[in-house]
Amino acid sequence: MKRVIPIFFVVMVSFCASSNSNASNTLGTFLGQTRHSGENRTTYGLEYERLVASNFSVGVAIEQSREGGHDINSLIGNVFYSPATHWRLGIGYGKEDVSGKDAEDIIRFSLAYEIHVTNSISLAPSIAKDRIDGESQTLAGISLSYHF
Question: Which superkingdom, per the lineage (predicted)?
Fold first, then answer.
């Protein structure tokens, strides 16, 4: 995963030469903090989203963090609804794999506000609430995305 992120940044930068105001695909990187059981951990990841209707999109997020010497990897499928310009509400389902343990189910509820820097680049501060095996965690961060 650590090698994928630098490659992803290179691909994003190479795409930035063109702009597309009718974009239906989005690739992004995410950096944030996850709060679980009173402790914070840095979380980073990659995101892909596809617009399927004017206010609806589907996507996938791959995230990684580290807690107590264990790597934590998550894969989450999301459905997003945009009730107003710039706002995105999401619900998702996926799996979290903690090294040395069985994968657990994740249910995610999220809220984001997208700020377009250019026609093809955006920043999106977001917050998410995850339910994992009966426990809650909160994830807050920012995404840098390329729309094409």
Answer: Bacteria
pLDDT digits (tens, 9 = 90+) for 41-88: 999 999 999 999 999 999 999 999 998 888 999 999 999 999 999 999
| Residue matched to tokens 């026609």 | 119
The 10 Å Cβ neighbour count of residue 87 is 13
Q: Give the C-alpha separation, 16 to 119, whole Å.
A: 10
Residues 6+ apart with CB under 8 A from 79: 56, 57, 58, 90, 91, 92
> What does the pLDDT look like over 73-83, one tens digit per residue?
999 999 999 99
Contact 17, 147 (CB under 8 A): no
CA dist., res. 88 & res. 6, Å (int): 27
Phi-psi region of 83 (alpha: psi -120 to 50; beta: other; left: phi over 0): alpha
